[in-house]
Amino acid sequence: MDTDAPPADSTNANPINTSSSRSTPNASAKYNSLNEMPTTLDDLRHLAVKQTLFRPTTLKRALRKFGFVQADPIRSPARAQDLILRHRVKDYRAGDLERNYARLGVEEDFFINYGFVTKSVQAMMHPRADCRYPAQSRVPWSASQNKRVQLLFDFVRERGEVHPRDADVHFSHGKVKNYWGGNSNATTHLLDAMHYQGLLRVARRENGIRVYALQEHGPGPSDEAACRARLDALIDVAVRIYAPLPRTSLVSLVRRVRAAAPQWEDQLTSAVQRAKQRYSTVHHNKIDWYLAHETNDETRSARYEPQNQDTVRLLAPFDPIVFDRYRFELLWGWAYRFEAYTPVSKRKLGYYAMPLLWRERIIGWANLSVKNGGLKSEFGYVKSQPNDRVFKRELDAEVDRVRAFLGLHA
To answer: What is the pLDDT of residues 118-162, one digit of tens each?
Structure first.
């Protein structure tokens, strides 16, 4: 078990020791394409920001560069996927992903979490084993459930596209307890499980509700070597999004890939070892950090476009820069918590606190909401608000960008 702990002193000047790296012999060569190896904690922060904040591009290209964008249904002030993409897509507006979904070459599916994956990434995850994880249970379907699955499958095939409401009216399977402990229509629950299994796909959404169609996947790998290669490729996708990663975070991320490919869950321990050998590493404050390497010139050049460091950015709680809470604390020196499901009396940051990035530091957070057609904003700071005219100007500019993104008037 990894026991990395946040350093007691995370000062900027602490140099990174590369002498004890577990990287492969050509690790430095891999990283030389990104100019040079990081040497300080400042460098790691810089890399964490620049790894995913590439110059804004088209929606299709941004999705291709990521391979996966996490989704979340909470709108505060917009869904997580939209809040993530607005920093990476030129002139992005809330809902653009859903509006253009059919022509973007992406699918809704589980990767390390639920979200949007490119078709090439989805093809590596399927066909999945006969299980229903993470749709509440990994126990194979019973004979009676298999019968229901076949009837639903035939129903979708006949209709082409099926809204869960129509399927429930037709079958009336009753209620079941869902993954979060509440009650769901049994038919909807079974449709979700069939989607995870790869029998169905999300063709579109209607008022936020998934509308399903049939889906077919090609055959899986034919031998153990091919299985390992495909699993490693999935891990590479995740690491490129979330690197640089301390050792504990790398292990956790690899194990999350079981949601993408439950058929290879028993191979994840060996996959962790291969990942540790595959990625370049640097050593800082007794912690190994693993660095991603790019796969093509297009991705490499896009990721390392110089940015205006004065720009203020309000990040989604699931943004790649924020996603790993352990890494967040190591890099930024304070503990961020997502408190949407925390009782109001116990919240410290707010319902949907959005970390505030400025000059490659996350110095605070914002809670944004739409009230009476206007944008309401409340800010908190780890220490105090910077007494800097540039910060004030850039914070106002970011709030204006959020208004435009939401389609609100100033």
So the answer is: 999 999 999 997 766 564 556 777 888 889 999 999 999 999 999
Rounded Cα distance, 136 and 151, in Å: 21
User: If we measure between CA atoms, which residue out of 283, 402, 308 comes closest to residue 49?
Assistant: 308
How far, in whole angstroms, is CA 314 from its chain's centroid?
16
Residue with tokens 């967040």: 328
DSSP secondary structure string for all residues of 141-155: PPHHHHHHHHHHHHH
Q: Are 349 and 365 in contact (CB under 8 A)?
A: yes
Which pair of structure tokens corresponds to residue 259? 């949601």
Phi, psi torsion values for 210, nearest 5 degrees: -65, 135
User: How many angstroms separate the Cα of 191 from the Cα of each of 37, 57, 60, 130, 199?
Assistant: 48, 35, 28, 15, 9
**DSSP letter, residue 217:** -
Selection from 197, 324, 328 nearest residue 254 by Cα: 324
- Sequence-ordered list of residues with C-beta below 8 angstroms from that of 196, at least 6 positions apart, any chain: 109, 110, 128, 132, 133, 134, 135
Predicted pLDDT at 42: 94
Domain ranges of the chain: 65-214
Q: Which residues in the chain come in under a pLDDT of 70?
A: 1-36, 131-138, 173-184, 294-307
Determine contact, residues 370/408, Cβ cutoff 8 Å: yes
Give the pLDDT of residue 299: 46
d(CA 39, CA 53): 21
Peptide bond into 77 cis (omega under 30): yes
**CA distance from start to end of the chain:** 51
Q: pLDDT (tens digit, 9 = 90+) per residue, 260-279? A: 999 999 999 999 999 999 99
**Nearest partner of 281 among 31, 12, 111, 11, judged by Cα:** 31
Q: Angle, nearest 10°, between helix axes 247-256 and 268-278? A: 140
Nearest alpha-carbon partner for 190 in 199, 379, 278: 199
Whole-number pLDDT of residue 130: 74
CB atoms within 10 A of CB 147: 11
Is the Cβ–Cβ distance between 133 and 255 less than 8 Å?
no
